[in-house]
Amino acid sequence: MRHILRAALPILAAACLPALASAQAVAPVATEAPAGAYEVDLSHASLIFRVDHLGLSMYTARFTRFTAALAFDPARPEASSVTVTVDPNSLQTDFPTPDKLDFDAMLRGPKWLDAAQFPEMTYRSTRVELTGPNTARIVGDLTLHGATHEVVLDARFNGGYAGHAMEPNARIGFSARGVLNRSDYGIAYGIPQPGSKMGVGDEVEVLIEAEFTGPPTPQASPTP
User: Fold this and answer.
1) CA–CA separation, 178 and 204 (whole Å)
2) Which top CATH class is 33-216?
3) Rounded to the nearest 5°, which phi and psi values hold at 185?
4) Are strands 81-86 and 169-181 parallel, antiparallel or unpaired?
5) Which end of the chain has fewer CB atoms surrounding its CB within 10 Å, N or C?
6) What are phi and psi of 16, to 5 degrees?
């Protein structure tokens, strides 16, 4: 009997695995926003990056010109995808005396982004992995400074709604965060020597807030 039970246990465990996986599957949060094609609303979007400066602060700057196209499926978020294009010439900092030093132009120059030679940055998702009812890992390819590497964004769906009388198009919103090493993209100027913090860090944190507008509300057919 003991031998029979020992032989049967692996079979029973294998039979239970699909049910266990199904029980642990994450159901996406419900939303009134419909599936379809969405475009970023730049009046309600920000693309910010932060990088360590001398180990004393996280220097913060942003890009102001970008586009983002989202194929959104609220019932199957893993089937969604996003494509983003960023103009590196739109980089802006809060440098206080641009009349004395055009620091924005310096960062757009050949030692850093080299926007003249590489006038476009792109991010294209390759898969979406649901991690909670309203959270996901977006895995995609970032092309920057002539190099392409995988970058993961931890995203949160903040909600949405279908179009209504005051706004005919659907609207949804997301927050996201990602991290990359700029040296992977050939931007290594100013990285501190090992054991030192005298310079500008290799690791770059990306912070995204974005609202998207989507399909219009179908018009009701007139009553005959």
Assistant:
1) 8
2) mainly beta
3) -105, 15
4) unpaired
5) C
6) -80, -20
Condensed to tens digits (0 to 9), the pLDDT of residues 69-78 reads 999 999 999 9
Q: What does the alpha-carbon distance between residue 131 and residue 137 come to, in Å, rounded to a whole number?
A: 7
How much of the chain exceeds pLDDT 90, in percent? 83
Nearest Cα residue to 158 out of 171, 168, 140: 171
CA dist., res. 211 & res. 174, Å (int): 6
Closest listed residue to residue 87, CA positions, set 51, 42, 128, 125: 42
Report which of 157, 165, 164, 132 is spatially closest to residue 212, judged by C-alpha positions.
157
Distance CA(47)–CA(141), nearest Å, equals: 17
Compute the C-alpha angle 44/85/32, nearest 5°.
45
Answer for the pair 50, 96: CB distance below 8 angstroms, yes or no. Answer: no
pLDDT in tens, 163-215: 988 899 999 999 999 999 999 999 999 999 999 999 999 999 999 999 999 99
